[in-house]
Amino acid sequence: MRLRLDTKWFAVFALATLTGTLTPPAPAQQVRPATRPAAPARAFGALPADPTPGDLLLEKYFRARTADIARASLADVRTAEDWDANKAEYRRQLADMLGLWPAPPRTDLKPVVTGTVDHAEFTVDKVQFQSMPGLYVTGSAYVPKRRDGKKLPTILYVCGHGNTVKDGVSYGSKVNYQHHGGWFARNGYVCMVIDTLQLGETQGVHHGLYREKMWWWISRGHTPAGVEAWNSIRALDYLQTRPEVDATRFGITGRSGGGAYSWWTAALDDRIKAAVPVAGITDVHNHVVDGVIEGHCDCMYMVNTYRWDFAKVAALVSPRPLLIANTDKDGIFPLDGVQRLHEQTRRIYRLQKADAKLGLLITEGGHQDTQDLQVPALRWFNRWLKKETGPVSNVAEKHFGPEQLKVFDKLPGDQRNTTIQESFVPKAPPPAVPENPEAWAKQRDGWLRELKAKTFGAWPTDAGAAEPRHLFSAEKNGVELHAFEVQSQPHVPVRVYVAVGAQAKPPQLVVLNVGEEKEFKASLSAFKTDFGDRLTDLDLPDADPKEAESTARMLKGTPWAMAYVAVRGVGPTAWGGDEKRQTHVRRRFALLGESLDGMRVWDVRQAVRAAGKIDRLKGSAVWLQGEGRMAGVALYASLFEPTVARLDLHRLAATHDLHADGPELLNVLRTLDVPAAVAMAAERSQVRIYRAPAQPADAWAYPSAVAAKLGWGADRVQVRDAGG
Question: What is the H or E stretch that residue 706 is in?
Answer without folding.
Answer: helix 701-709
